[in-house]
Amino acid sequence: MDRRSFLVKSSLALAAPFIVPSSVLGKRNGAVAPSEKIVVGVIGIGPRGRYVLSAMLNEQDVQVVGVCDVQGDRRKAAKGQVDAKYGNKDCAAYRDMFELLGRDDIDAVLIATGDRWHALASILAAKSGKDVYSEKPCGLTMGQCQALSDTINRYGRVFQAGTQRRSIGNFQLAARLARSGKLGKVHTLNASVYRPRVRYDWLAEEPQPPVDVVDWDRWLGPCPWRPFNKAYLRGGWHTHWDFEAGSMLLDWGAHTVDLCQMANGSDGTTPIEFTPHADKITARYANGVKLVMDFLATPFGDRSPHFQTHLGTCPVRYEGDRGWVETGDSGGIEVHPDLKVELADFRRSGAGTAADSHVRNFFDCVKSRGLTAANVDVMRKSHIACHAAAIAWQLDRKVSFDPAKEEFVGDDEANRMRSRAMRSPWHI
Amino acid sequence: MKTYRYIVIVGLVFLNVIGGVSLLAGAGGDEQKYIATLRSDASLFEKSRACQELAVCGTKRAVPVLATLLDDGSLGDYARIALEGIDDSSVDDALRNAMGELKGKQLTGVINSVGVRRDARSVPILKTLVGSSDMTVADAAVSALGCIATDEAVGVVLGLLKSDSQAMRECSANACLASAGQMPAGRAIKLYDAVIKAEVPTHLRGAAVYNAIIVRRSAGLPMLVELLRSDDGVMIDMALGAVRRLPSSGVTEKLVAELPKLEPAIQVLVIDALAERNDPCVRQGIMDLAASEDVEVRIASLKALGKVGRASSVGIMIKSLGVSGEEASVTAESLVMLNGDRVDAAIMDGVRAAKGQLRAELIDILAKRRVAAALPLMRREAANEDEAVAVAAFKALRQLSEPKDIAKLVSLLVATKNDRVRGYGETAVAAVALKMEDESKRCDEVIAAFNATDEAGVRCSLLRALGNVPNDKSFAILKRSAVDEDGDICDAAIRALAVWPDQRAMGILSEMAFKSSDSKNRVIALRGYIRLVGVDVELSLEEKVEIYSRAIRGASGDNEKKLILAGLANVEHFTALETVAAYLDEPAVAEEACLAAVRIARATAGVMPARVRLAAQRVKGTAKSERTRSQADEIIRAINRFGDHIVAWQVCGPYAKDGLNYSRLFDEVFAPEIAGGDVKWSLLPIDVSNPKPWILDLLKLYPGQQRAAYVRTTIHSKSKQRAVLEIGKDDGIKVWLNGKVVHSSNTAGAVTPGADKVNIVLEQGSNSLMLKVTQNTSAWGFCARLVNPAGGKVEGVTVDCCGEQEMSTIDKSGAGKAVSIFDGRSFAGWEGNLDAFRIEDGAIVGGTLKEKIPRNEFLCSEKQYGDFELRLKVKLLGDNANAGIQIRSRRIPNHHEVIGYQADMGQQYWGCLYDESRRRKVLAWADKAEVAKVLKPGDWNDYTIRCEGKRIGLWINGYKTVDYVEADESVEQVGVIGLQIHSGGASEAWYKDITLKELQ
Predict the structure, then answer these.
(1) B709 touches chain A (CB under 8 A)
(2) B13 contacts in A (CB within 8 Å)?
(3) What is the pLDDT of residues B261-299, one digit of tens each?
(4) How many CB atoms lie within 10 A of CB B92?
(5) Do B85 and A416 lie within an 8 Å CB cutoff?
(6) Which chain A residues contact residue B10 at CB under 8 A?
(7) Does B105 reach chain A within 8 Å, measured CB to CB?
(8) What is the CATH number of the domain that holds B883?
(9) Residue B77: its chain A contacts at CB < 8 A?
(10) Which chain B residues in 278-337 lie under 8 Å from chain A, judged by CB atoms?
């Protein structure tokens, strides 16, 4: 029996890995034999990657065996993190992701590159037979999100988008209140987002470092060529048209719009109309519900008047004709005074940035082949909604959208903005 | 010309960044301009931008020039960005031409674009390119054919599945899957089947099988079943995925029918997957399997029934509930989850039909389902002779009963004869009594029942219930009963008092613990007493140690000593460790002493490392428990790693403020920065299990983001000497030594030990050191190491964070106490035009409401002040009244005006800092809207003015309105305080409770 098959079957004998709460799975007491572990590799690893990685390293039934980054120091730091956890020097460090993807023993990968690489790396991983946990935004363009979703489904892979708030108690409760009718008829969903920004300039050319320090060609990947500048490497790529998804709208929108989709029961669709305003983008679902993407001037500071600052970053608010609910990364939740009773059993479970339960949900599904909390179909629609909103903002006019065809209605200009050619030789 | 265009583009880019409006918007008419740019000798950047614009606005007019760029090493990719977006056949013509001419990377790019555009006319060219010796080109060509997916293209790709080259076969398999994905089922199946038979890696064959099954719909079942029987894990994965996604129409039933034939391990997985299909027809099949011979299958089925079951499943589930082990527990969980009409009723029927343990479990399930309608049934069952049933009923009643039901519950308890059941009755009564909103009435029913009976057993039971419903009435009854003649009643009362939650019971427990003649009662009372001492917030740690020390010296038996040692274990103070250490040599209690010592040592290792290490070494030599010894060892190893790091810290926090992130919190002044600020310091625990135990973790203590905490300690130096503080921080850090800021770094990032090096001078004697550490997101902590300027050990220095020395960042000497500068009765210490000022109700009043105020008037302090904190209460009356408090000011000789800063009040000026008779303007505006939220117009308001060095801060009612730093070196920073009434309409300015604290 091959190792993978053993993995599938042996997991049964210990505790049937399904329906049971995720806490049971993989958190069995005591050590798990190496042959039963899910073997994981990491592609692209900066601060957020190391954070998610640390959640993965805590899982008893997971073994991280390799990390890959085009930056030498990040490679080294990630290897150090893994080795420190396991108390050995066994973690392999790669510059070239194809070496990692070529390993037959790896079952799943964590993709935590910059936006520009998410979809392509996820697709390459799926084609190599790996399951994928990808940080958000999962695709730089609408077209990439579609291709990613098609590919994951075509190859029968398990996919989790790094929209971990789907797996966190306060956000789940807020969505449940909206969907269960406790708020009455829901009419407005508020998603906090950054004020969109985009820049088209190139930073001044600097001498290119040796390829082992930074592999600039690989860093750029599918994006068009531009001269090297080290400022891009550490987050400086943000807001550049070629590198950032949807003019920054997806940075939070991939979470908050996604949560609104969940609250509206709209995981299989998107709004049908997007209108940009000075301080927000409004959208309308076919069921009449309004989605408001409120631009926050100080996302990490004062979030009033749209949101209650004390609820933390990435807030969302759902309003119905009988009440409202609002929640955010603090883990807390606020409701209309009449709805307080709905919070009776609520226990604050932690920060909205925590990836633990989301990561666990991914590994449970790697074993059972079930649908993850933020599966590729869910990701597709909520990301497309964000991209459509970004395009409306870029065009600075109202656009209509057909959720089934995933195209703008009678709007050639907008439709042409849905995708971009990739730099040779990359394609999806 | 070139320069001009450059400016246009750069200008537009600039606008873009600032305004956030896309360049692409309204660019449609600019196509000609971009075409011209591409034809000119414009820079690479300009041309790349032109291509990106043409991707949206370009038409066939742009194709010729874009086509010329396809062979350009840098611009080729940009040209394709434009071309892929243009919906015109001339693009395809151009790309086909280019395929004939280009090589290498440029050729690959063009092939990729051809694939994206699905240009069927390219197939003949691609057909030749798949044979290219350049593998990248060949790969691109096969992929493009896969995208195009015409019969001709597919024919080529299928042929390549049998290629000699492994890489080409894989490439072709991927292309087949891509083609099939866009085809109708009939054509797609052929492609999938071809890949299944090909010599390609399992995961590709797996993907093909997966799709082949799904696309065949119900006809895919045999394949699926076969796959489920596979021995290959990859294939099983695919099969399980397919079970979940295979479209319905009879599939579920057939799968259910196939289930019995599968290997049990696979059955289990398939049951789970089927349950997710949410198909009602699964129910019967799964119910059948709940009777499978294989226990794992039964468990999986019963679990699945929790999702797909309905009232009709209750019967079979109750049967499984009667079995033991995991099967029963899984069934219980499923019964709790079960949805649907009449499920509750079916379970209640089940209760009536069941006996013994099963009956009890069903009652438990009803409680978990919160079935209020089952309350009468539960009350009946509480009197059931079967102990288990009665216990379950009382447990359920505890959860579901409302306060209005309390009388019924008390009578059930009174009627209970079985002691064990009675215990649960007591808990239920107490829990429901506690649900009552009116605290004073909670015990009334219980006390009434207590007074109504003479039966000792019942009375004891009610006393135990009262112990868990603490209020004045229950305490009075317990206190009285603790000296009852009846031994059992006395015993019950003492036990109840021993778990009493607040300090009221301390007196009586102490008395019984040390004076009772009954040894059993002594121990019980002592246990309660020790617990209450432990949770007493009024007692200092030293006092607790003192109480315990006295108790242990007077303890008569080993049990008592053990209890006290356990109490000491919770006192995180070094003296507790010393007390405990004395018992390490007393064999009967040594093990408890070791446990306590380790616990205290862990908490205090940072405070007195050398002495804690000594104690830990003794524990290591004494303890019998392996675990205790290794814990002691861990402490010793941690202490050995401290080196020159400062680990003895007191901490306070977290401090946060709405709207301020970590960066802005950095300069926000919180209580620890204010002399005499109300701060509760506690010991900062170190993590001895951390390989770097000297990195102090603040996140563990205060989980969260966007906040700040302070830590402080005292450094004793034998002489005045230079030293270096080497700091690692996460995120921002500010350092005060003896009240002066000596370092400040407001940046985020992880702890890097020694990244910040701060040169300091230690005074002879005590030096106070305080750090403010801010928190952005994720990790939060710091480390600090003290070395001499050469990087070596600093001589003659000890660190002690528990000293009594009052530390303050501002008030170095501790002498700067706030003093009143207005006595409430006289103008002593003040001077000015006393026609304009009077004293009324203990306040200074400027102006009058009876007539207009002809000119500005000031009442000034005789003394001058430099750095200070001034607090006073102010009230302003009259329309459009204005006034203010002059600070650091002086009078203009022979004139009624003064020169200097004014903390303004009135109209829109509340909380602003104005410069009177000097720059004559508002130096710093307050946020009017925010001030309006805190200001009480026409009433008393608290004004606080803080001047320190070049910085002036103003607060109104605790809200900081202004934080101003003087940039002009020539402006005087010392002067008098002056209370103003501004000229204008009839108005009065009231000032009282004026206190001033000089800083430094």
Answers:
(1) no
(2) 199-201
(3) 888 888 888 898 888 877 888 888 888 888 888 888 899
(4) 20
(5) yes
(6) 201
(7) yes
(8) 2.60.120.560
(9) 224-225, 421, 423-424
(10) 296, 299-300, 303-304, 306-307
Q: Which residues of B touch A3 (CB under 8 A)?
A: 233
Residues of B with CB below 8 A from A150's CB?
181
Q: What type of residue sits at position A104? A: D
B704–A195 C-beta distance less than 8 A: no
The full length of chain B comes to 1000
The verdict on B486 and B517 lying in the same domain is no
Q: Which of B48, B81, B108 is closest, CB to CB, to A421? A: B81
Closest chain A CA to residue B53: A417
- Residues B549 and B671 grouped into a single domain: no
- Lowest-confidence pick of B245-249, B501-505, B679-683, B981-985: B245-249
User: Could you tell me the two tokens for B876?
Assistant: 């302003």
Instruction: Name the one residue in this structure whose structure tokens are 């669709």.
Output: A269
Cβ contact B336:B314 at 8 Å: no
Contact A330/B24, CB-based, under 8 Å? no
B75 and B203 both lie in a single domain:
yes
Q: Which pLDDT tens digit goes with each residue over A28-60? A: 234 455 667 999 999 999 989 999 999 999 999
Out of B106, B234, B265, whose CB is closest to A12? Answer: B265
CB pair distance less than 8 Å for A302 and B659: yes
- A20 confidence band (pLDDT: 50, 70, 90): very low
Owning domain of residue B767 = 650-800
B760 phi and psi, to 5 degrees? -135, 165
Indicate if B943 and B832 belong to the same structural domain. yes
Residue A397 Ramachandran class (φ > 0 left, ψ -120 to 50 alpha, else beta): beta
A23 Cα to chain B: minimum distance (Å): 15
Q: Decide which of B237, B257, B277 is a domain's last residue.
A: B257
In a domain, B654, yes or no: yes
DSSP string, B5-22: HHHHHHHHHHHHHHH---
- Closest CB to B113: pick one of A127, A158, A421: A421
Among the listed residues A4, A245, A209, A237, the one whose alpha carbon sits nearest the alpha carbon of residue A120: A245
Interface pTM, i.e. ipTM: 0.92
Q: Is position B375 within any domain?
A: no
Is B78 in the A-facing interface, judged by CB distances under 8 Å?
yes
What's the mean per-residue pLDDT of chain A? 91
Question: Which band of pLDDT confidence, cut at 50, 70 and 90, is reported for residue B208?
Answer: very high
Q: Tokens 């020790």 identify what position?
A: B530
Q: Which range, of A139-148, B500-509, B910-919, averages the lowest pLDDT?
A: B500-509
When pLDDT is cut at 50, 70 and 90, the band that residue B17 belongs to is: very low
Alpha-carbon distance B655 to nearest alpha carbon in chain A (angstroms): 13
| 3-class secondary structure, B847 | strand
d(CA A263, CA A255): 12
State the average pLDDT over residues A70-83.
Answer: 96
Within 8 A of B81 by CB-CB distance, chain A residues are 224, 420-421
CATH classification at residue B145: 1.25.10.10
As a three-state string, the secondary structure of B627-667 is HHHHHHHHHHHHHHCCCCECCCCEEEEEECCCCCCHHHHCC
Q: Specify the number of domains making up chain B.
A: 5
Q: How close are the terminal C-alpha atoms of chain A, in Å?
A: 34
Decide: residue B7, CB within 10 A, 0-12 exposed, 13-18 middle, 19+ buried.
exposed
Transcribe A122-147 into DSSP letters.
HHHHHHTT-EEEEPSS--SSHHHHHH
Q: Which domains does chain A have, with CATH numbers?
A: 3-165+356-375 (3.40.50.720), 166-197+245-352+380-416 (3.30.360.10)
| Same domain (yes/no): B443, B543 | no
Q: What is the pLDDT of residue B247?
A: 80
DSSP state of B799: E
Q: Please answer yes or no on whether B234 and A427 come within 8 Å at the CB atom.
A: no
